[in-house]
Amino acid sequence: MDTIFALASAQGKAGVAVIRVSGPLSHRAASELCGSDVPARGMRLCTLRDKTGAQLDQALVLTFQAPASFTGEDVAELQVHGSIAGVVSVLGALALIDGLRLAEPGEFTRRAMDNGKMDLAQVEGLADLIDAETEAQRRQAQNLLGGKLGEMAERWRRDLIRAASLIEATIDFADEDVPVDVTPEVAELLSGVQMDLEQEMIGVVISERIRTGFEVAIIGAPNVGKSTLLNALAGRAAAITSEYAGTTRDVIEVRMDLAGLPVTMLDTAGLRETDDQIEGIGIALAKQRADTADLRVFLAEGGDVLDVDFRSGDIRVLPKSDLRSDKTGAVSGATGEGLDYLVRQISQVLSQRAASAGIATRERHKSAMERAKNGLERAQAILKTGPDHYDIVAEELRRAIHALESLVGRVDVESLLDEIFASFCLGK
């Protein structure tokens, strides 16, 4: 396998930059730059020089011996000063060493997976961790990266293999008297795995929302203060405000962190009857986004009738508390009155929903679990018909096991890998 190298820390000026080299020639490459042998495993402070002997930088060189490294290969990491020119000079010197080439995006992580250091779900967790913007996203990514989904899938797989082995034993001894009826144990194993799968599948929708962000739509009549409220929540002038009704025509989106959860606030066009074609398009879009949003904040007077149904969990507040004598249940984007209360309400609703999140976070995970569950349902139905059809039960169990193996990347994942690793940065 080629020996690859790349900057493993962020691009740009920094106190320290880390350059990673992975592959069979990694230690030799580090030794060439240091001018003397580096240990197979350990660290050494040395002066890096190019082939002409010119000094490049001083670096702390860390070496890892296969398989005890991130990639599972021999690895050398050069911790150099984080100047842009200095990093470029060291990368240039590595490029001149025979047998080395620049790593492709995600190639270090792909090698870690190929060498059994990570499964596919952990790779996805690492990608999520790199992109994490909130505490909830970080915790969720750490669960995936820590292998919890793989542990669950392996536990389910073991139970199904046990059930399949019992069924296969019955088939093998079909012409003999088998003293023990395996049906109760098999049924119990299949039922247990199915219940676990169903429970985990329920949490995927919320887990995916934590990964990609909840959407909260602010809806109400024109000129009720929706854009002003959005600007107050964002802490900046994200939306145009004016005293004229119908100013907002498109949906304005602002990304923010509420109680550690990623939330996109949506400012929508005021809901009313209109002959203005452009405003009508904006109102139709507002209704569409309100319908698909995870939570709606109705900014409306008690008597306002809006063409959007109120759903369980939605929040209703009165507008322009600064103009009211009774400020109960009211909020003002202009003065900030009631803003903390509204944020707490939104955070409370979304936090309660986030509590039901599972370990699985992606539609791919849900699809694999759905296939496994469907196989189990068919197997359980056929199991009740008796030993004459146990060969069909065994086949359904094999399909369910195959689906669980695809969950963690043991099978049927080649088509996914290029897309997944393309999202990684060059040094990961």
Structure explained in plain terms:
With 428 residues, the chain is of the alpha/beta class. It has three domains: 3-112, 2-Layer Sandwich (Gyrase A, domain 2); 149-209 and 362-408, tRNA modification GTPase MnmE domain 2 (Four Helix Bundle (Hemerythrin (Met), subunit A), Up-down Bundle), CATH 1.20.120; 216-354, Rossmann fold (3-Layer(aba) Sandwich). It is built from 13 helices and eleven strands. Helix 4 runs antiparallel to helix 5 (135-145), helix 6 (148-172) runs antiparallel to helix 7 (183-212) and helix 11 packs antiparallel against helix 12. The protein is flat. The chain starts with a strand and ends in a 6-residue tail after the last helix. Mean pLDDT is 86; it is low at 240-247.
* Unreliable stretches: 240-247
Using the coordinates shown, work out and report the CATH topology of the largest domain: Rossmann fold
How many distinct folded domains? 3
At the first level of CATH, what is the class of the largest domain? Alpha Beta
Helix content percent band? 40-55%
> Which CATH architecture of the largest domain would you pick?
3-Layer(aba) Sandwich
Shape: flat
Q: Given the structure, what is the number of helices?
A: 13
Mean pLDDT score, rounded? 86
